[in-house]
């Protein structure tokens, strides 16, 4: 997949993305609401191998500088449904890059026949749910003490409240 917007290139990951990926996956502020802790370079190498092998993780690159500044996740679910998620380098927050990249990917998914896209986020992560609302998602649910994707290293659940949002192809 390769999609270009006014300012961005949305594409598959490559081995050349290691340093840019490390820059934001090693940042405590960036991964605060993610199901993992800040990663060291060896952990990021392993994570990048996985990203290269899947079409569900989309790298977001600035057209002007070719710096990879974040990613959008589009995971396939049953019955023409996708789950969306996103993580961006904090040095690029507040510039509309998440909005621009997510909108392009949502439009592309709907043009390919996807019926529904949903997202889950921590209610404390106002940047995430405000982005979803800006994109036209509607809040469907507030789950109390939901496992979502958080577990301890031994596999036991970490109970967290969760918002669920969705947008439909109309």
**What best-fitting shape do the alpha-carbon axes yield?**
globular
The radius of gyration computed from the alpha-carbon positions, rounded to a whole number of angstroms, is: 16 Å
For CATH, the homologous superfamily is named as Gcn5-related N-acetyltransferase (GNAT)
End-to-end Cα distance: 24 Å
Number of strands: 8
Number of domains: 1
Which strand-content bin applies to the residues?
25-35%
Major sheet strand order: 1-2-3-4-5-6-8-7
Do you know the CATH topology?
Answer: Aminopeptidase
Uncertain residue segments: none
Report the CATH architecture. 3-Layer(aba) Sandwich
What is the number of helices? 4
Amount of helix: 25-40%
Category by helix and strand content: alpha+beta
Order of helices and strands: EEHHEEEHEHEE
